[in-house]
Specification:
Number of domains: 2
Strand content: 15-25%
EC number: 1.5.1.5, 3.5.4.9
Structural class: alpha/beta
Protein name: Bifunctional protein FolD
Number of strands: 11
Pathway: One-carbon metabolism; tetrahydrofolate interconversion
Strand order of the largest sheet: 1-11-8-7-5-6
CATH topology of the largest domain: Rossmann fold
Shape: globular
Distance between the termini: 53 Å
Largest sheet: 6 strands, parallel
Order of helices and strands: EHEHEHEHHHEHEHEEEEHEH
Family: Belongs to the tetrahydrofolate dehydrogenase/cyclohydrolase family.
Function: Catalyzes the oxidation of 5,10-methylenetetrahydrofolate to 5,10-methenyltetrahydrofolate and then the hydrolysis of 5,10-methenyltetrahydrofolate to 10-formyltetrahydrofolate.
CATH class of the largest domain: Alpha Beta
Radius of gyration: 19 Å
Helix content: 40-55%
Bound molecules: guanine
Length: 292
């Protein structure tokens, strides 16, 4: 029997409803609402779509968003100046710098310059350090989305074999950290996993992925995870968003793997919508942190 489809879009919509109430309460108590500054450099069409989706989500939950669009040839200094301005602006609570940045700009330089209390992506080294130490200020958006899907679908990772395929700073590393953590702000079922991280240089990767009770695919290669790499009954979370000639697809060979898995996230309508709503949550968190 084919596995359950974990409907990320429906879960994200439910969280948006909860969040909209929290934002309304915040505005009632504090006058001003949370405000997100979105910075988009260049004209990568996919990035433009992501930023648009984030701004539409802001509208839905009552968060104000301010757009800063810069040309592809923008220099590092110019972007650092904008970040400094946004850091100093008391009306801005969160700063989102959409990645990737053009090649002449060093991403690390820019992300390090974002004020740690406005770092709604949780990319700043201070916030990554706090996360690794088990006392997070913000949870990174996509990894948090993965945890929310698991938790709200009644899937526990505690004591389970979790395999993460991919070791990126945005997904692989932080999701592995969260799954292995001793406790979790999301709930007791979202931590205490036994986590293995695989990547492009892992030898006999399929032998490792086949040990997974919970398999997280975040390697950025279309349909990389095939059915014979998955243990029957595993839960499969597909974080990939790949644009191919035949449309969007994930890192998992969805149709074939669904026949093996007990539960699986689709692409689209899987993890993607959660990433967006977790950014909204972090913007509210940032606004709360800046009250004190
Ligand atoms: N590019 C791809 N994913 C992300 C993300 O989560 N945040 C930002 N800022 N850029 C991205």
């Amino acid at each position: 029997m084919a596995g359950t489809v974990l409907d990320g879009k429906a879960i994200a919509s439910q969280i948006e409803i909860e969040l909209a109430e929290e934002v309304a309460d915040f505005i009632q108590n504090n006058g001003d609402g949370p405000t997100l500054a979105a910075v988009l450099v260049g004209d990568d069409p996919a990035s433009a779509v992501y930023v648009r989706n984030k701004r539409l989500a802001c509208d839905r939950v009552g968060i104000e968003s301010k757009m800063h669009r810069l040309p592809a040839e923008t220099g590092e200094e110019e972007l650092l100046e904008l970040i400094a301005k946004l850091n100093a602006d008391e009306d801005i609570n969160g700063i989102l710098v959409q990645l990737p940045l053009p090649p002449q700009i060093r991403s690390a330089k820019i992300l390090d310059a974002v004020h740690p209390l406005k770092d709604v992506d949780c990319f700043h080294p201070e916030n990554v350090g706090l996360l690794v130490q088990g006392r997070p200020r913000f949870l990174p958006c996509t990894p948090h989305g993965v945890l929310q899907i698991l938790d709200r679908s009644g899937i526990s990772v505690a004591g389970k074999q979790c395999v993460v395929v991919g070791r990126s700073d945005i997904v692989g590393k932080p999701v592995a950290t969260l799954l292995a953590a001793k406790d979790s702000p999301v709930g007791p079922n979202c931590c205490n996993g036994t986590v293995t991280v695989c990547h492009s240089r892992t030898s006999d990767l399929a032998a490792i992925t086949r040990t997974a009770d919970v398999l997280v695919a975040a390697i950025g290669i279309p349909k990389f995870i095939k059915a014979d790499m998955v243990k029957p009954g595993a839960v499969v979370i597909d974080v990939g968003i790949n644009r191919t000639e035949t449309g969007l697809c994930g890192d998992v060979d969805y149709e074939a793997v669904r026949e093996i898995a007990s539960a699986i996230t689709p692409v689209p309508r899987g993890v993607g919508p959660l990433t967006v709503v977790m950014l909204m949550l972090n913007t509210l968190t940032a606004a709360r942190l800046q009250l004190t």
